[in-house]
Amino acid sequence: IKTVLLLDGIDQICSEKLSEAGISVTIKAKISKDDLLKEIKDYDAVVVRSATRVTAEVLAAGSKLQLVGRAGTGTDNIDVDAATRAGVIVMNTPGGNTLSAAEHTCALICSLPRFIPQACASLKAGAWDRKKYMGSELSGKTLAVIGLGRIGREVASRMQSFNMTVIGYDPFVSAETAAQWDIEALELEEIWPRADYITVHTPLLPHTRNLVGEKVLMQYCKPGVKIINVARGGIVDEAALLVALESGRCGGAGIDVFTSEPPTDLSLCRHPKVVCTPHLGASTIEAQERVALEIAEQIVTGNAGGPLTGLVNAQALAACGTPAALPWLTLATSLGQVASAVLAPSKSTTVTIQCYGDDVSPLARAVGPAVVVGILKAAGHSSANLVNFATLASDNNITFQNSTSSERPSLLATAITQCLLVTVTTSAGSTSVMGSVSNGRAVLYAIQDCMWESGLPLSCTLLLFRASSGSPDTTLLGLGTAVAGKGGRLLSLVSSGQGSSEQYYAIRMTGDVIIPEAPAGAEFLAKLIFS
């Protein structure tokens, strides 16, 4: 990544950190949709807060775009699915605003039973009305925390110091783990009737939209329940909340986020039992510096070949963050291309990847997707990468599975201590290819039972041919004659060992090579271009 566009008034520490790493930075605090569509094509990455919407249209216009960074947690202003299909990494900073959001939530919780904003406004207007603002204590009340991630846990910890009983729900947190935080884990239907206060800390997803809705508020919750939302607008049904407030069923609400921001209908905000703020959960000096610094550090570290963190849509890349991983990923992609060259195209493909050896086995989560990327590239999907491989694989009916093995493959030469064995099966048949890494280079050692004892480097341009086992030496000579004068420079022309029914010939060349006509007895398979 060489060029980054910073939007939404991201703290200047982000620009400073990126610039120190030699990355060119352009800063635009505000930008219209039309201007963004015009300018995004010039950048490798864009970093936003919550104001700018990175839509499918924006992603399509960003022909150079490799990464969308979110200086914050939520990514609902980013079309993650479209980014994934386009092969663009989406990265966020999930921990950067945790404390600020938790503190703001606690402030709203504390404000509700004591009517602090309302009493303040009343006194400023000249009234001295103590009776009107008679409040209640938090001590002894039950707080329900929906979503026990970083922010939810911090809220629970702070409100426990007010002697509140904390119950919670999170489908990804076990009851035993919650108990370690002094939180009683319950199902939602058990939470609603017990909670005096409910605070939501989940992402906005189809199944969390209107999670706190009409039935929950009017039928399931206890009368007088108070609702707090500092997560995402839409988790609480605003229309249903207003009805519950007006009916007295809901005793108050603290709202920092809205379905539409800024809200055009202020009926909810103006309700006397509502304490509302304009999406200030992460709006502290410390949080904005923290998320700006974190997203910059994540980009710089990834650029330098270090571990990738904060990944939203490219989990396969999380296992690739070491220099030692790169040649194995290159090998895996190359083996996928070679296997595709040997088999005829098919409507469905099954891939099995076996990792053998101490260095490659820990990379199993990454090399499997990399093999699929190679198969996709061979099928004409030039944009395939470790971000969009799963989407494209599904589109093309490609399934794969990884495995690790301590059992040495029978064809593996004694001197080779680790390898990848890739088996591809289609309606046209099945083939296996085996390779390893030697001195940081991807090397092919076998196709089926045809071996290259010294290995075939998978670099430059490779012309691959197949012939029947036992083909005469004139086939190899004929290939040498065929490539003469076809452009490029000949690096090597080698034959595999004879297999049970076939053998392979490989011509490695540099430069632009015109595909030659195969001599008698040989079948041209593919022209493969490796980095």
UniProtKB/TrEMBL annotation:
Residues 4-313 form the D-isomer specific 2-hydroxyacid dehydrogenase catalytic domain. It holds the Pfam family PGDH_inter. Keywords: Acetylation, NAD, Oxidoreductase, Phosphoprotein. GO terms for molecular function: NAD binding; phosphoglycerate dehydrogenase activity. Residues 107-281 form the D-isomer specific 2-hydroxyacid dehydrogenase NAD-binding domain. Residues 327-440 form the D-3-phosphoglycerate dehydrogenase ASB domain. The keyword Mitochondrion does not apply. The keyword Acetylation applies. PANTHER family: D-3-PHOSPHOGLYCERATE DEHYDROGENASE, FORMATE DEHYDROGENASE 1. Belongs to the D-isomer specific 2-hydroxyacid dehydrogenase family. Homotetramer. This is D-3-phosphoglycerate dehydrogenase-like. It comes from Hirondellea gigas.
